[in-house]
Every structure is written in C-alpha cells, then in structure tokens.
Write a structure and sequence with these properties.
The complex is a heterodimer.
Chain A lengths: L20 H4 L16 E7 L5 E7 L8 E3 L9 E2 L11 E2 L6 E2 L5 E7 L2 H10 L1 E6 L6 H5 L14 E9 L9 E9 L2 E2 L7 E7 L4 E6 L4 H12 L6 E4 L15 H13 L3 E4 L2 H8 L1 E2 L2 E9 L5 E11 L14 H7 L9 E8 L14 H19 L3 H8 L8 E2 L5 E2 L4 H11 L2 H10 L6 E13 L3 H4 L11 E7 L5 E5 L8 H13 L6 E4 L17 H27 L8 E3 L2 E4 L2 E4 H10 L14 E6 L7 E14 L4 E12 L6 H21 L30 E5 L21 H13 L8 E2 L3 H11 L11
Chain B lengths: L6 E3 L4 H11 L3 E4 L5 H6 L7 E4 L9 E4 L2 E5 L4 H5 L11 H6 L4 H6 L2 H7 L5 H8 L3 E6 L2 E6 H4 E3 L2 E2 L6 E8 L6 E7 L9 E8 L4 E7 L6 E3 L20 H10 L5 H22 L12
Parallel strand pairs in B: 1-3, 2-3
Antiparallel strand pairs in B: 4-5, 5-10, 6-7, 6-10, 8-9, 11-12, 12-13, 13-14
Classes of the chains: A alpha+beta, B alpha+beta.
Chain lengths: 790, 292
C-alpha cells in the first residue's frame, strides 16, 4: 500500500463487494431499453441480404413515404470515416445508409419508423430491393490475391494497410531448430448480454440532440456523431446509462446512431432502435479473425533465435470509428513477441478488406490472436527440441532483473517477474502429477492434456503510443472531478464509463484511500457528456490507471483545501495540522470533512479570509509518469480431457497466476479474470461466425453461435502476484482484458498435448469437436511426426 | 425480430381446435409449448394468420397406460416426463431423455407433441421415440389415424400432418423387462441441439433390437433389425460385436457423404449400444472402452 501505512478498511486493496450490484442484481439497472419518452417511435432497418452488390433501386411503396427513408433522403449527412495516419492506409467511407453498393450482409439500406418495432418490421418487409450481385470476398487470403473483386474499387486492391518490420531476422536462419506453423483464429461476435441500442430526442430548451446510447465512450461518440450530422458538438449530448457489457462492442460509433440522429432531427419526435440478436450476430459484431504463417528459430536448448511471421487480419468492409480497420493487424507486429526476449524478428502484416462486418475491438484486442499464434508455435518448438513447454518458456521469458525492459519492438515493460508467474502456475497445476496421470492412461479412454500460456497486456497506453497511430482519438490527460456535498458526502465525475468493471466501488476506494470518505458516501457520476469531464472512455484496460489517478489527484487537492479550512477552524497554524483519514488533525483537536463542508457551503462567514475560492470542488488531470502503458501479465495452466473419437473436451483444472500490479479491489479483479476466462473458453472451443462462399454469415441465432454457459466454465484457481508499476498512482496496472487473452492458447496447447501420441494437432480456434476429429482421422495412416514428446 | 401480426385462439377442447383449423384453410399454425414456433414467429420464418394454442385443451395433457403402451397427450411437457408426473415406458427411459432436452425453462413449456410436429432432426424425441417404436395419433375432420414415427416424419421440419389435423397423442410401447435402451447424444455444450444422436432398443433375451442414427439433418436413419450392426445376431455381450464398418456403410447408403460426420455418428451409436449393454449387466470385454 502507499506510504507503508496499514491499509484502510475501504481503501486500495480492500475486497469490498461492489456497490452497483445492489441495483444490478435486483434487476433495477436502467438500460437504454428501459428508457421511455413520450411520443417515442421505434425503428427497424432494411438491411442488405447480399454481401456484395450494386444497388439498382430501392422501391418504397407510395403509402410508406414519410415513414421509410433511404440514402437519398439523408441530405448533408457525412459518412463515417475512421482514418489511420499510418503510411499507406487506404480510407474507407461508410455511408450510414448504403449508396451505390452494399459491401456486407446486414448493411443498412433504409430506415423504417413506426409506433412499435413490429410495425416498423412490417414496413421493412414491404420495401423491395433491386440488387445486382457481385462476387463476394469471404476469404481474406483470396481477397489479397491480384485480380480479386474489389470491396472499394478506387483502392486497386483490398488491403487497408500493409506493414513490414525486420529486425535482423537473417541472423536466425542458421538455427538448428526451425518450426513453421500455419495458425488461425475464427471470426467471432463479441456478445454482451445487452446489444446495442439508442433512444434519441430533441431537447428544444437546450437546443440539443439527446442521445441515450449504450456506449463505453460517450465523449468520442459525441464527436463522431456531431461530425457525421454536421452539428456543433455542443448541440449533442450523449448519455450512456447502465450498459449490459461492452467488451469493445460499445466502443464504436454506429451507422445506426447516425441514422437515428438524423431521423430525430427530421421527424421531431423521439426515436428508438434496439438491436436484436440477429442484427447483432449477422450485421454488426465481428471480431478476431487472424491468419498466421509463423516460423520460430531456436537452439536445441529452446533458446529462441528469432521469430518470423506473416499475419493477415480480415478487417471487413469498413473502417470502424474510432479505432480503424488496422486496429488489429498493425498491432500484431508490435505485440507478437509477447513477454519473450529474443534477438531477431520479422513480421509482415496485412489488414484486408472483405465483404464481412467491419472488425471491431474485442477484449484483448489483437493479443488473443498473437498469444495463440506464438504460444502454439512455442509448444511445437518444445516438441521438436524434446523439452517441456515450461522449459522453453522459462528459457526465453524476460528476466525480472532486466526491468524496466525495452523489448525487440521497443515496448517498455514497467515491472514484473514473468518466470515466477509461470513457475507458480506449473507447480499449482501439478504438472508432474498430470504427466504421470497421462502416462498411466484413463479408465474411460479419454486423453489428458496439459497446456500453458503466458502473455503480457499493455494497458492504459496513452498519448505517446496513440499519437503515432493517427486515428481519430488520442488519449491525453485523464480528468476527474471531485466535490464534497454540504453534508460531507463525495461526488466523483469521470468521462469514462463503468459497465461491469465495478468503478462505482473501486474509484470510491481510491477516493477513500486519499480522502477517507466512506465508500458508501461516495457516488460516481459517469456516462453523460453533460455532467462529466472529457475522456476517450473505457477501453484498453485504462480506466483504473487513468481515472483512478485522476480521482486520487483531485481528492488530494480537495484534502489540501480542507486541511487549510480545518486549520482555521482549529485556530492552528496550517503548518501544524495534517490531513488524515477524513479528518484535519491539529495540535489540540481535530475536525472532520462534514464539518468543513458545512462551513464552506453554509457558514462562509467562518472561513479564513484567504480561503481558496475554488472551494470543495476540484477537477484534476492525470497522466502516469510514463504513458507507454502498464504491463500486467498472467500464466495460465489447464488440464483437460479429450475424447479423441468425438472431439469432446472437458476442462478438469484451470490455474491462473496473474500480476496486475497493486490491486485496488482483488475481488473485482477476480471477477474480471473469471469473465475473461469464460470468453477465452468461448474463443478456444465454441464461438465462430462462419461465412459461406456468398459471404453469408451462417450463425444467425445463439442456437448456432455457441457461447459458453455455466456448465462450460470451470471455477479457476487464481493466484495474485502484486508487482507495483513504478509509473502509476498506487502502482496499479490495467487488467481488464487479460483474462480473455491466454485461454485459447492454453486450452488448444492442452488439446494438442493430449493428441500428441496420435500425431494429431489442431492449429485453429475454436477447436471444435469436428476439427479435433478431423485432425485425429487425418493423422491415422499419416507418417509419424518428428518427435513424440508425450 | 418481432412477429408479423397474427390472431390467437385458445380453444378449450379438441373439437373447437379442429373447427378453427378447418375455418382457417391452411393459414393457421398449431402451437403447443411454443418453444420452437415462438422463435420462428419472431424471426418471421413462420407468418401464420392464426395461431391455435392448444395448451389449454385438457385432454391433450393426459398421460396413462393403455394396454401394452403408454399414451402421452400431445401437450404433456418434457418436465412432466422428467419429473415422473407422466408414466415411463421403462426404468428411467423417457425420463432420462426428457432431462437432457435443452434447459429446464424449455422443458417446463416444451411438449412431446410439439416437438414431434416440429420434426427438427436434431431434437431428442424424434430419435429416441423412433428407437422405442412409437406411433403418433392424429385427429382431423375425418377422424383419427395412427402413424408409426417413420411414416409421420417426411423430412427435416416436415410431417404427414395435413393443415387441418392436430397431433393429439403419442403411443409408446412399454418395454419388455429384458429390453435395454441406450441413448447418447453429441453436443458441443450442455443444452445445445445435438450434432449426432445414437439410440438403441435391444432385447438380449429375444436377440432382437432396433437402432437409430439421429441428428442427421433428415429424418432419423432407423435400422429396424439391429442385428446387421452386430455381426448378424444379438448375443448377450452384443456391444462387443458392434460392427463399425456395417454402421458406416448404413450411413453411407443413407446418403451421408461426409466421412467425419459418419465417424461421429457411428461412434455415438456405438456408445449407445455400450450403454444398453452396461444396463444389461453383461460384462464388457476390457478392450471395448467408451473412448479409444
């Protein structure tokens, strides 16, 4: 804890139950779908049934005029443009309603507005489309080939961005071990329980368009929406109420929001659109489809000599705002080395346009894919070298004595002991015992596998990182406002958003650590551009570092102002009084914050003449000492049983040793890890959005797009290490995404460990029963692999 | 995902229900538990003008012994069977199948008759009741008729029901005390529709049996004389003799072209046979284990 003091019961480090759970668990949350405004009408969209087609005509029946609108009606509305400043980036313009061409199934073609959603869908069913089908690009590798059909004709090819980095890879070519693998991850749909949705109305008094929308980044949406609608930003207010899960899906500006904003201005009455699950799955929520050709060069003792990779990411039809279409592929090159220290590296990446939904940021952005690729390749190295997976990793993980450490791609690791995390995980999972069990065989004939993975998660990376990227959003100082109420309560305001992270509790704990106000007397205001300081929002595992630092800074200034008022009330010299746990303590007595607040607000005649006129309300800004990000990390170890005949997988044990720096609330961190693990299991085993040759998404309901349920998610055993970050307030690090990064690699490594005696391996996620059976059947009669490490 | 406009009727007796169907002249759809029809309405895959909700028809909720069969009214729910409110045809036979259908919330509302009338190839009752030799009873303007399940189900999501008919009951023969029922399904997660189902009803005493490959994207493949799957006979230790090649050949001849699919379906049926075998009390050869 800070300053070596005993931890406060409600301060940093306390395992407090979440305050927000009282309303959320009782079903009293207020979501976009709960908002009712008099005169509100519902919207349904006509969406493209084809992946790629020229629009010849959209026929709106005469009696639907004024209730159905197409691109021709959207005068003055600009397309969504999410540009990257990286050299060579090709710009896509996404019109809110399609113009000339549709480039993905589900693309918006017309807005239908009616008193109810059902009636709006009736209208939509009456609109007829005259589309000329074009060849659909459903395969990113084919889309890269010369002569492929073009998603955006004026580009000349289908590549948003190509990057190339080579750091002396040639020096690794003479390594005795060279392992090459083609590894890929399925396309997914991130799936918060609450979909997207917006309720928009005009506030005539304030001359504002008031947009209730489920968003992780209300201030960014305000900027993007204002630009598309051609409105002064002051004329747009974004309110993001309770949000039922974000995971990146709510960190984008939607074409639907632009359409609704235009419609509210056009019609003058409130309008609402609530995304249904089919829209969510087939038209909007794509993420994570990566393809890697990766080669690892190594010594016989497992020392990595170099990593050579070509990575392709299917970025879909448009560049999503604000993170852009090169969000994943451009990051792959810089983060693929993970927590390993090796001397030679080459990585070439392509962000490819296809006729699919735009790729969106999903928890663990790009890291889940690179962790999967590198960790699977390292297990192949281990098998080739006849070493255990942990031996190869320990040989190459960055050593704690090298911290802070700049890796081969200039990522600055702030602190940590990666080998220790792995050693603990291997011990906790009882690797030796598991291997003995493997050798003995199972009574039921299943095969046991042990899998490891380890990753690092750069979090809260700021100005210096994002300014080079040139996307529409660069985080700067994060601000928070803190105000004491006349009865001594505390109000905090932040521009980021809490939608599962527990910030209403954890930021109150931060404030309590500094100011001593009980957590129960602290209220967090967030999610409303009218009420909060500007922020780029909740993304990149940044809020505890950034908003936490800002809250602490604001509270420290409040404490100092209170101290000076308190000294006056105690009739003591300011140099003789100190602020401690919510009280100002002098040589002969003390006075609490409630009394100080009462005097400031209600008895100003009792204040010192030189009192700070800013009073008991402070807005403060914060950046860590270095803004290159905190590095949290974890080692995951899993034991599972594979039924090699049916491809069924049962997770038997799961261990996570994580280091998120100083934990503000370990219970909340546990929750983040459990939730991330559930999503990681989905990535590893279940979730996939397949497309057919025509670019049709094939999983249009949750009966086809399989999410893990309670029966599929084991209770993991979690061990926390706490290596403080030297750069942040309290030494905290961001941990929001990490739980979802490592599970696919650990689980598929374990499956391959189980299948190794059969010479079978799976190199694609999700490792479905069919893929496992295919691998087993393909290995029958195939020549034995180079070495059987089992 | 909101349904198109429809009218809803909740008749109190079968005659009223049939009259409504007759008047609707094909524009009506019968709803029992609504667990499949509800989503189809929301997705506008079905847009009937009239829905006749028969869940309030008391006679369709009755279940009881009738000679050598148990007769289940079409609106008996999966939960009624799971919980034992409806009689079983053998020791924990129908109840076990019921307990594995989707989730409890679905089982509380979903019905036996609704499931069969929907005829989803991946559903549990279609395959399990085919193995158990069930018949359905159908009522229409011309009276009642009975059909064996293979005759009733004419394709995926398609049955021999006429637009003015209602499936009113399912007759399932009571199992011989010496018979054993094996039922295994292969799902990617708990509660999901099956990707492969294997069901066997085998009587080692009479050396007879029936086997079913289910969830084949078409009506189940019913092997009326299961001896072909066990080397031409059904000995006491029948599972030891399960003939993988014969099973694979059966599926290939039924039109399943994908070798991986056939492998999985054959393995699932083999395990159903193993399960029935284990229930019969005969020891298994040590090399015949559930997963190789």
């Amino acid at each position: 804890m800070s300053g070596g003091r005993a931890p406060l019961a409600e301060g940093v480090g306390a395992r407090l139950p979440r305050k927000e759970d009282d309303r959320l668990m009782r079903g009293r949350g207020e979501y976009v779908g709960d908002i009712r405004i008099v005169g509100m009408q519902d919207v349904a969209f006509v969406r493209s049934p084809l992946a790629h087609a020229r629009i010849r005509a959209i026929h709106v029946p005469e009696d639907c005029r004024g209730r159905v609108f197409t691109a021709a009606d959207l005068d003055g509305v600009k397309p969504i443009r999410a540009v990257s400043g990286l050299p060579g980036f090709k710009v896509s313009e996404q019109p809110p309603l399609a113009v000339d061409k549709v480039r993905q199934v589900g693309e918006l073609l017309a807005i239908c507005v009616a008193p109810t959603r059902a009636e709006a869908e009736d209208l939509a069913a009456r609109v007829t489309l005259d589309l000329e089908e074009l060849p659909a690009l459903h395969d990113m590798l084919a889309a890269r080939e010369p002569g492929a059909a073009l998603v955006h004709e004026h580009w000349g090819d289908n590549v948003y961005l190509e990057t190339n980095v080579n750091i002396g890879i040639e020096a690794a070519f003479d390594a005795p071990i060279k392992v090459s693998r083609t590894i890929s991850t399925g396309r997914q749909c991130m799936a918060p329980i609450e979909g997207r949705g917006a309720v928009i109305h005009l506030d005539h008094r304030l001359d504002q368009l008031v947009v209730h929308t489920a968003s992780q980044m209300p201030h960014i949406v305000r900027t993007g929406l204002s630009e598309c609608l051609g409105l002064e930003q002051g004329r747009v207010r974004i309110v993001s109420p309770d949000v039922g899960g974000g995971f990146g899906y709510k960190a984008i500006l939607l074409a639907e929001e632009v359409c609704l904003g235009w419609l509210a201005l056009r019609c003058g009455h409130p309008v609402r659109w609530l995304e249904d699950r089919r829209e969510h799955l087939t038209a909007n929520a794509n993420c994570r489809e990566h393809h890697y050709d990766i080669t690892v060069y190594a010594e016989r003792d497992g020392t990595i000599r170099g990593v050579d990779c070509e990575a392709t990411v299917d970025s879909g039809a448009y560049s999503a705002y604000p993170f852009s279409a090169c969000l994943e592929a451009a990051q792959v090159a810089s983060i693929l080395p993970g927590p390993y220290d090796f001397p030679a590296y080459r990585c070439r990446t392509w962000s490819v346009a296809t006729n699919k939904c735009p790729i969106l940021p999903y928890r663990g952005v790009a890291r889940t894919g690179v962790c999967f690729a590198l960790e699977l390749a390292l297990d192949a190295v281990a098998a080739e070298a006849g070493l255990t997976p942990e031996a190869v990793r320990l040989k190459n993980l960055v050593r704690p004595e090298r911290m802070p450490f700049d890796n081969i791609t200039n990522k600055h690791f702030d602190s940590g002991d990666y080998p220790e995390a792995l050693i603990r995980a291997v011990a906790e999972i009882d690797a030796a015992g598991v291997r003995a069990r493997q050798a003995a065989g199972e009574a039921d004939g299943r095969r046991i596998g042990l899998g490891l993975s380890i990753y690092c998660e750069q979090a809260a990376h700021g100005t210096s990182v994002y300014s080079g990227w040139g996307i529409p959003m660069v985080p700067g100082h994060e601000q928070a406002a803190a105000r004491l109420t006349p009865d001594g309560g505390l109000e905090l305001r932040i521009g980021a958003h809490s939608h599962g992270q527990g910030l209403e509790t954890t930021l109150a704990q931060v404030a309590h650590e500094v100011l001593g106000v009980p957590v129960a007397r602290t209220r967090l205001v967030h999610g409303d551009t009218a009420l909060t300081p500007y922020s780029t929002g909740s993304w990149g595992s940044r809020v505890m570092v950034m908003a936490g630092g800002a809250v602490a800074t604001a509270c420290a200034e409040l404490a100092e102002r209170a101290r000076l008022i308190g000294a006056h009330l105690l009739q003591a010299d300011p140099s003789d009084v100190r602020f401690e746990a919510g009280r100002v303590v002098g040589p002969a007595g003390d006075v609490g914050l409630p009394e100080i607040a009462r005097v400031w607000y209600l008895r100003p005649q009792d204040l010192p003449a030189d009192v700070n006129p800013g009073g008991l309300e402070v807005t403060a800004g914060y950046k860590p000492q270095r803004d290159s990000g905190t590095f949290s990390y974890a080692a995951h170890a899993v034991v599972l049983a594979v039924d090699s005949q049916l491809g069924e997988v049962e997770i038997l044990d799961y261990v996570i040793v994580e280091d998120g720096g100083v934990l503000v609330n370990p219970m909340v961190v546990d929750g983040q890890i459990f939730g991330g693990l559930a999503q990681g299991i989905g990535t590893a085993l279940l979730e996939e959005m397949p497309f057919d040759e025509a670019g049709q998404p094939l999983a249009s309901t949750l009966a086809d797009y399989l999410l893990p349920g309670a029966c599929e998610v084991p209770a993991p055993r979690v061990d926390h290490m706490e290596t403080p970050s030297p750069y942040t307030r309290f030494g905290v690090k961001g941990i929001g995404e990490g739980g979802a990064i490592a599970p696919p690699a650990a689980i598929v490594n374990a499956i391959n460990d189980a299948l190794r005696p059969l010479n079978a391996q799976v190199l694609r996620s999700p490792a479905t029963p069919r893929r496992i059976v295919e691998a087993v059947l393909a290995a029958r009669g195939a020549p034995a692999m180079t070495r059987d490490a089992a | 995902m909101k349904p198109a406009r429809f009218a809803l009727e909740r008749p109190r007796d079968l005659a009223a229900a049939l009259a409504l169907l007759a008047q609707a002249k094909g524009a009506a759809k019968v709803m029992a538990g609504g667990q499949s029809l509800g989503p189809m309405l929301n997705l506008r895959l079905a847009e009937p003008e009239l829905i006749v909700d028969v869940s309030g028809v008391a006679e369709l909720r009755h279940a009881g012994r009738d000679g050598d069969a148990v007769v289940y009214g079409a609106c008996v729910t999966h939960a009624d069977i799971e919980d034992g409110r409806a009689p079983d045809v053998g020791p924990n036979v129908m109840a076990r199948v019921a307990s594995g259908i989707a989730y409890r919330a679905v089982r509380n509302r979903g019905t036996l008759g609704g499931s069969l009338a929907h005829a989803d190839p991946a559903a549990d009752w279609l395959s399990s009741l085919s193995a158990l030799g069930a018949e359905v009873e159908v009522a229409g303007p011309a009276g009642r008729r009975r059909l064996a399940l293979p005759a009733f189900v004419t394709g995926a999501l398609s049955t021999a029901l006429e637009a003015d008919e209602i499936l009113v009951a399912v007759r399932v023969p009571v199992m011989n005390p010496s018979s054993r029922f094996g039922y295994v399904k292969h799902c990617r997660k708990v509660g999901e529709f099956a990707h492969a189902i294997g069901a066997v009803l085998i009587d080692p005493e009479t050396a007879t049996g029936r086997a079913v490959f289910g969830a084949v994207e078409a009506p189940p493949v019913v092997v009326e004389d299961a001896r072909v799957l066990f080397g031409g006979r059904i000995p006491p230790g029948f599972a030891d003799d399960f003939d993988v090649a014969a099973a694979d050949d059966t599926l290939a001849r039924a039109g399943m072209t994908d070798a991986v699919d056939r492998h999985i379906h054959v393995e699932v049926l083999r395990r159903a046979a193993l399960q029935a075998h284990a229930l019969s009390g005969s020891p298994l050869r040590p090399d015949v284990r559930s997963a190789a």
